[in-house]
């Protein structure tokens, strides 16, 4: 019997970014990231922005960003915001390899957040 599940679009872009930086530069990286991150989370299209760090691969950071828009909008509008310039100028020399960007679309009805996850989250 065929599944009744369908992929319903939310119109929400999910960006998974992986950056590998020199582990000795973690404090400087986070200091440079903070202003750009704070600017992003105040954009009306930014719905979610999570930063994580690998405990087994020091210096490997993963960002999960959810935006109201599509990849074209992100590349043409969001990615060109001026507040990325100082962040990139400071952090690019810290990168070990290229950053990896994967764009996907959020699927309606398949997201969950437990209150325990949200306890240490900045909320609007």
TrEMBL record:
<dbReference type="Pfam" id="PF03992">
    <property type="entry name" value="ABM"/>
</dbReference>
<dbReference type="GO" id="GO:0004497">
    <property type="term" value="F:monooxygenase activity"/>
</dbReference>
<dbReference type="InterPro" id="IPR007138">
    <property type="entry name" value="ABM_dom"/>
</dbReference>
<protein>
    <submittedName>
        <fullName>Putative antibiotic biosynthesis monooxygenase protein</fullName>
    </submittedName>
</protein>
<feature type="domain" description="ABM">
    <location>
        <begin position="13"/>
        <end position="103"/>
    </location>
</feature>
<dbReference type="InterPro" id="IPR011008">
    <property type="entry name" value="Dimeric_a/b-barrel"/>
</dbReference>
<keyword id="KW-0503">Monooxygenase</keyword>
<keyword id="KW-0560">Oxidoreductase</keyword>
């Amino acid at each position: 019997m065929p599944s009744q599940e369908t992929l319903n679009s939310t119109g929400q872009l999910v960006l998974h970014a992986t950056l590998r930086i020199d582990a000795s530069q973690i404090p400087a990286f986070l200091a440079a990231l903070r202003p750009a991150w704070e600017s992003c989370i105040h954009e009306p299209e930014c719905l979610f922005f999570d930063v994580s760090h690998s405990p087994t691969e020091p210096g490997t950071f993963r960002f999960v960003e959810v935006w109201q828009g599509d990849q074209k909008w992100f590349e043409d509008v969001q990615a060109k915001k001026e507040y990325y310039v100082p962040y990139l100028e400071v952090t690019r020399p810290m990168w070990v390899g290229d950053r990896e960007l994967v764009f996907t679309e959020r699927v309606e009805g398949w997201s969950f957040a437990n209150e325990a996850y949200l306890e240490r989250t900045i909320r609007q």
